[in-house]
């Protein structure tokens, strides 16, 4: 059921895009931090540290993508997609920690103005370089994210874009400091820190809502129900539940089928339901279909009735009073509307006349109906 090809392609794309992002961020972080020290700009250093933490997050993403792609095993029957979720939380926490460090340093300098730095014009050029490379990364990453529909790469792409905002703030801060507003470089550093922590909070929020099993929205839910409602053999669908696991979706659903069809036909119908749902939503990894012979939305009408062994014990006691009826072992049970409906199959060879067979059928039906819970009784000769 698990087709390895698309997930292999997902992994390759995720890895390539992430490696390009990591290489770009590595060069940029070095340029920003070294340049920030040489050109004396706290905002530029802050942005460089931010870029460094992006590098860390890129490696986390790469690691998570490989782990999350590992096939299901005995201990992890639903696969490993949640590793992706956990990695996202860790990256989010790291971003908040980094932001806090930068903001505290900038506040300290703002309180003692003699510690404020005075950036050189080269810092301005480095801020511009950062803007250009991060905007480029955004476009590159978002294209790949759309192609393989990866929420992880989407998050990364938007991260690159928010990095552009951060570098713009740095550009303005350095520009203003050069123009004579000495405190603006530190103010820019605080703003950068704020952006970093917002990003971290958002990553954590998304992952937590996935961990508490947020399903698809009501419209998507309706679309999924509609896609199977008119399949062959379906009398109704209800109780569709979905939940996300990394980029995968899991679903379970109840279908109503003809109340007297065989178990194997019901199973066949449930297979076509699972297949149709997976075709309509490619990210659907597992579908569990529950087959209902009757509507069980408000109550379970037949759950109080005895199972086969107990019922057969009672029936056999009754049937002993009908000469020529036993052994009777071809008995089909239908649990419907809170009663058990029986089909009794008898062999015609046992009867010399049609009249004799009819008389036995009448007698059998009468005594069978005396058993508690029994509804309609039909006797077949074949
Ligand atoms: Zn960033
Ligand atoms: Zn099955
Ligand atoms: Zn149901």
Automatic annotation (TrEMBL):
Keyword Zinc: yes
Domain Cation efflux protein cytoplasmic intervals: 218-294
GO molecular function: monoatomic cation transmembrane transporter activity
Record bears the keyword Ion transport: yes
Transmembrane segments: 85-104, 168-196
Pfam family, any one: ZT_dimer
Cation efflux protein transmembrane domain ranges (all copies): 19-212
InterPro entries listed in its UniProt record: Cation_efflux (IPR002524), Cation_efflux_CTD (IPR027470), Cation_efflux_CTD_sf (IPR036837), Cation_efflux_TM (IPR058533), Cation_efflux_TMD_sf (IPR027469), CDF_Transporter (IPR050291)
Membrane association type: Multi-pass membrane protein
Keywords: Ion transport, Iron, Iron transport, Membrane, Transmembrane, Transmembrane helix, Transport, Zinc, Zinc transport
Database matches in SUPFAM superfamilies: Cation efflux protein cytoplasmic domain-like, Cation efflux protein transmembrane domain-like
Family stated for the protein in its record: Belongs to the cation diffusion facilitator (CDF) transporter (TC 2.A.4) family. FieF subfamily.
Protein name, per record: Cation transporter
Species of provenance: Ectothiorhodospira haloalkaliphila
Lineage of the species this protein comes from: Bacteria, Pseudomonadati, Pseudomonadota, Gammaproteobacteria, Chromatiales
């Amino acid at each position: 059921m698990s087709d390895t090809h698309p997930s292999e392609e997902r992994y390759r794309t995720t890895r390539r895009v992430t490696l390009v992002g990591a290489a770009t961020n590595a060069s940029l972080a070095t340029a920003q931090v070294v340049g920030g020290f040489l050109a004396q700009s706290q905002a530029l250093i802050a942005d460089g540290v931010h870029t460094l933490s992006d590098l860390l997050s890129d490696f986390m993403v790469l690691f998570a993508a490989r782990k999350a792609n590992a096939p299901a095993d005995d201990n992890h029957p639903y696969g490993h997609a949640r590793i992706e979720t956990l990695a996202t939380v860790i990256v989010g926490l790291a971003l908040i920690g980094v932001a806090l460090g930068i903001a505290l340093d900038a506040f300290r300098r703002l309180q003692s103005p003699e510690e404020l730095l005075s950036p050189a014009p080269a810092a301005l050029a480095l801020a511009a370089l950062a803007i250009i490379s991060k905007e480029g990364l955004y476009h590159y990453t978002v294209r790949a994210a759309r192609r393989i529909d990866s929420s992880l790469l989407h998050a990364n792409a938007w991260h690159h874009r928010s990095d552009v905002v951060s570098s713009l703030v740095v550009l303005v801060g350095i520009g203003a400091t050069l123009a004579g507003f000495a405190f603006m470089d530190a103010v820019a550093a605080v703003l950068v820190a704020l952006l970093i922590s917002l990003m971290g909070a958002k990553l954590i929020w998304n992952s937590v809502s996935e961990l508490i099993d947020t399903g698809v929205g009501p419209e998507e839910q309706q679309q999924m129900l509609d896609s199977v409602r008119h399949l062959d053999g379906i009398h109704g669908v209800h109780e569709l539940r979905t939940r996300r696991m990394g980029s995968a979706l899991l679903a379970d659903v109840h279908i109503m089928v003809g109340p007297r069809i065989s178990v194997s036909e019901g199973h066949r119908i449930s297979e076509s339901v699972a297949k149709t749902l997976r075709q309509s939503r490619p990210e659907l990894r597992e579908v569990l279909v529950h087959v209902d012979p009757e509507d069980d939305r408000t109550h379970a009408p037949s759950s109080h009735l005895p199972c086969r062994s107990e019922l057969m014990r009672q029936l056999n006691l009754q049937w002993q009073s009908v000469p020529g009826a036993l052994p009777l072992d071809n008995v089909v049970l239908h649990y419907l509307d809170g009663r058990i409906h029986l089909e009794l199959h008898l062999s015609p060879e046992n009867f010399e006349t049609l009249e004799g067979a009819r008389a036995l059928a009448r007698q059998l039906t009468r005594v069978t109906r005396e058993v508690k819970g029994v509804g309609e009784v039909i006797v077949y000769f074949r």
